[in-house]
Amino acid sequence: MEDQNQFLSAKNLLDSTSSIIVALPPDPSEDLVSAGLSLHLTLLSVGKKSQIGCGSEVHIGSKLHGAQEITDSIGAQNLVISFDYHEDDLEKVDYDVRPDGKFYLMIKPKANAPVPDVSNVKYAYSGASADLVITLGIGSLEELGKIYADEKKFLDEAKILSLNITPKPIQFTKNSLHHTSGSFSELVALLMDRAGIKPDPEAAKNLLGTIYGETKNLTSPRMTADTFSTIAFLMRHGARLPNQLAFVPRFAQPAFFEAPSAPDDEDDDLEENLSAEQEDVPFPTEEDSPVADTPYVIPPSNLPSQVVPQDWTKPKIFRATDL
User: Fold this and answer.
1) pLDDT tens, residue by residue, 300-311
2) pLDDT of residue 257
């Protein structure tokens, strides 16, 4: 029951927010990256505004789709320009917005002080803003590293949903989905399924591929009914197990409603025989038409026309005097 309440609370949070930040801890495992990245891609595909950030470089294989979406910052409101320079060498900082619409920032050094080296200039963003932050695999906000250091004020006040695969309690938020699962990818897929969210096709492939690897090709003793349920859910949305070919149904023989076609030579002979037989058969005139609805019989095709009795080719007329 507690698990059901957690999934329901997480679903309500996702439904009620339009902008979301997914935050990963530094040096994440491939499972954490797959789970966070797939959640981010799916949120984008259902019309949410989403960002994903990690406080360190992410080292993963090329098989995960969308890894370029991960940045080292979750801020998007302020442009930050940084470079190496000593404060004692600085005279003043000024800016100018010229008629051409361009913004100019001027760094004026003191007399005899070195000019700032443009090769060291770096650009970044700060000032995070979102309705909801989703964290994966952390026990405290400090474990986010650089992301927390850059956006401490925002994260301390933000609405946060914590995802974890252990039931360990946390203090930094009241909103948590801590469910015992074999992997974070399985947990995220299960959340999508329970929340009624259709995963992005590439996200489904990321998740299923990671689950397959984390379960040692589906042989791990940690697999549960939830594992198989999430695999089926992901396969219904376009994912396939590694090295699994697409299933294409084939018929071993023609379907029962498809009549086999005769060779062209047999068709031509059949048409010629029917035409010849029909030409030899005289059709009745109106004067000789029967008074009763007696069916007209065509001679058998295997009999030559000269041996057919004459009365076979004439309509049968019955009169009262014949009785």
Assistant:
1) 555 555 566 777
2) 53
CB 23 within 8 A of CB 161: no
Of the given ranges (91-95, 123-127, 199-203, 238-242), which has the lowest mean pLDDT?
123-127
How many domains, in total, are found in the chain? 2
Tell me the C-alpha distance between 100 and 106, whole Å: 17
Q: Please check whether residue 89 lies inside any domain of the structure.
A: yes
Q: What is the CATH number of the domain that holds 11?
A: 3.90.1640.10
Same domain, 224 and 107: no
Q: Among candidates 104, 84, 102, 80, which has minimal Cα distance to 93?
A: 104
- The larger pLDDT score, comparing residue 142 to residue 88, is at 142
Residue 52, C-beta contacts closer than 8 angstroms, at least 6 positions apart: 21, 22, 23, 24, 36, 37, 40, 69, 70, 71
Which DSSP category does 71 fall into?
B
Residue 157: which residues within 8 A CB-CB, separation 6 or more?
Answer: none
Last residue of a domain, one of 193, 212, 236: 236
Domain match, 88 and 183 both: no
State which residues form the domain around 198. 2-75+128-236
25 in any annotated domain: yes
Confirm whether 264 is domain-assigned: no
Q: Which of 137-146, 218-227, 314-323 has the lowest mean pLDDT?
A: 314-323
Tell me, yes or no, whether 44 and 181 share the same domain: yes
User: 14 and 38 share a domain?
Assistant: yes
194-219 pLDDT, tens digit per residue, is 999 999 999 999 999 999 999 999 99
Given a cut of 70, whether residue 278 has pLDDT beyond it is no
Residue with tokens 């590293």: 145
The beta-carbon contacts of 170-173 under 8 Å, at least 24 apart in sequence, are 170/139, 170/140, 171/140, 172/140, 172/141
Q: Give the pLDDT of residue 186.
A: 97
